[in-house]
Amino acid sequence: MRVFSLVVLVAALALLAGCSSSGGGPTPVGVATIVSLSPSAGQSLGPGGTLTITATVTSGSSNTGVTWSLSGPGTLSSKTANPVTYTAPSSASSNTNVVVTATAAASSSATAYLPLIIVPSVTGSNVVPLAVNSGPAQNSSNIAFVSITICEPGTTTCQTVDDIQVDTGSAGLRVLQSAIPTLSLSSLTDTSGNTINNCVSFLDGSYLWGPVQQADLRINGEVAGGALIQTISSGSPTIPSACSNGGTVLENTPTLLGANGILGVGLEPTDCIVAGQDFCDGSVSSTIPAIYFSCPSSGCASNASPVVETATNQVVNPIVLFATDNNGSAIQFAPVSGAAATATGSLTFGIGTQSNNALGSATVFTLDSSDNFETIFQGQSLIASFIDSGSNSLSFPSTLTVCPGNNSSFYCPTGLTSLSAENVAFDLTTGAFDGTPNTVPFDIDNASTLFATNGGNDFAFSTLGGPQGTYNTCTSTGSGSCSFDWGLPFFYGRTVFTAIDGQAVSVATAPWFAY
Amino acid sequence: MEIHRNNSPNGALLAWVLGALLVVGSSLPALAALGGDLSSVEADRASMQAEIKVTQADAYATHEIKAPTGTVVREYVSPDGRVFGVAWQGPFIPDMKQLLGTYLQQYAAAAKAQKAGRPGHRPLNIQEPGLVVQTSGHMRSYSGRAYDPGLLPQGVSANEIR
């Protein structure tokens, strides 16, 4: 899939652009000229590094030549030779963006490009810093932020966006339209020229809405070329009621979202696949969930129905588009003791692909068909448990006192309470949660006290907890309160690996978590 | 997927009914489930294009609706025909307008209030005099329940809504 995405999308967008400029007339008869490149996925190079790039042209013409062009520093060995060699500049003081483009001699509208990044040192270029702080809303609690660079496809026209939340509980990049004002990104369209919009619903009933757009994403030395992302629409667009679904909060400002976007680096390759099942391409059921909507450029109708989208047209977990570090990631945070103004950590791409991302002695937790494992806690077998850097707290069913008023999604015990749970993997062979229990001690403190410490200027809380439903209601079939949501506090003082469904990774078949 | 229920006091009377079920009268009012009558259960089933299974216990009936997309909704109906609780689990959040009906505004307002203090995502826990809503999950695996404590039939614990 990774091999095809860049080329196919470029070709598709070119064809659609052609359709719209011809006023929706009949499609011209003939064989489209298509250029593809090898390597197809974006690469990083050190200073003076070289890369051989081969173009393949398929068309009805016998002319299979290409013309190369370069955006950014460095040199190409030739304008027309195929393959061509790109040589990076001999020194680089900071990450530098480069794009190499091949244009078919037979058709100037047939192009393919390869995004490159020149890094001062290749070592560690798969690592980006993470920070927990007040965030754009100025009142965050346990939101982990990263910076990423978003570029118009095939260009070095880019914008770096700070305060993007890192989320192991979802897949795909979602960025506020208001956070990328200098960029002009193309929306994904269908054959009628309608815009494909994406809908995301969160566990708390809040939701995101906006067009699926194409961008090159650059995260330190990693490049995800031609990635489909969701651009979260500003203002008050008409949103299909199937998406707003009763409408708690449309999170389309930094204050409402608590971030400028969400980087979903979770267990799945796209936002509509789970455990190899694609719910949006029509293969599971003819009933299509409210994830993708096709709407005129003038906007959606409130009664619009969701549409089928195949995996290559879905919002993608950018990691799977990386050249080599594409099988998962590791999030590491320094320990936090109670409440702190900030916390610092890192996001490392790839598992076992570099010297800096080995699994080591971490314990692997393979997952059931809903991407869950089991947590045993105070006599409960919580068989829909998961690790989620996008959740603000450790949330689980217990008899702890719930905070009063609007803080009732947090726990308020009278003082620091020491607890312990055991995590158990799902055994893919036996089909049962029968792995060796792994004990996790943790503490829960009074959330009202935590929020009030340091004059209310603390935003990282290792002991923040909250209720998930009601104690002792989980049944063996998974109905009732069956989740232990190991939110961001779980990451403090740990390294947590997330291996992506369908990607090649040693040790065990992905998806899995490990820590 | 066969789902076994073990919490029926007198052993379950099970019936799979496909298509129209228990519909009295010729029209289907667009009522939603919580607080509604039996016709609202059928409206939910139709909305979800789903199959339905009814389990009868002494104090209430459970109408289990399974949508083609895998999400299961259970609606708890008192002897006088009133839906006093709903629960769901599956890869997609069900239609909350349909499920909560007249309780929708209260739900949305309470959810907004919980987020207002601290942005971010976490399980919802609404505990108001006339409405309890609890949710959990992550992308492609959600669960939750909602009920009106005032509508619980005598002798029925809220914990049975799950």
Describe this protein's structure.
The complex is a heterodimer of chains A (about 525) and B (about 160). Chain A is mainly beta and about 525 residues long. Chain A contains four helices and 33 strands. Chain A has helices at about 1-20, 240-245, 255, 445-450; strands spanning about 35-40, 45, 50-60, 65-70, 75, 85, 95-105, 110-120, 125-130, 145-150, 160-165, 170-175, 195-200, 205-220, 220-230, 260-265, 275, 275-280, 290-295, 330-335, 340, 345-350, 365, 375, 380-385, 395, 415-425, 440-445, 460, 465, 485, 495-500, 510-515. Chain A has a seven-stranded mixed beta sheet, with no helix packed on it. In chain A, strands 10-11-16-12-15-14 form a six-stranded mixed beta barrel. A four-stranded antiparallel beta sheet of chain A has the order 1-3-6-5, with no helix packed on it. The radius of gyration of chain A is 24 Å and the shape is globular. Residues about 1-30 of chain A have low confidence and may be disordered. By secondary structure, chain B is α+β, with helices and mostly antiparallel strands. Helix content of chain B is about 20%, strand content about 30%. Chain B has helices spanning about 40-50, 95-100, 105-115; strands at about 15, 50-55, 60-65, 70-75, 85-90, 125-130, 130-140, 140-145. Chain B has an eight-stranded antiparallel beta sheet, covered by helices on one side. In chain B, a hairpin with a 4-residue loop joins strand 2 (about 50-55) and strand 3. Chain B is globular, with a radius of gyration of 15 Å.
Low-pLDDT runs of 5+ residues of chain B are 1-32
Percent range for β-strand residues of chain B: 25-35%
On the 0-100 scale, what is the average pLDDT of chain B?
79
H and E order of chain B: EHEEEEHHEEE
Q: Give the uncertain stretches of chain A in residue-range form.
A: 1-28
Radius of gyration of chain B: 15 Å
Number of helices of chain A: 4
Number of helices, counting only DSSP H or I runs of 4 residues or more of chain B: 3
Count the beta strands of chain B: 8
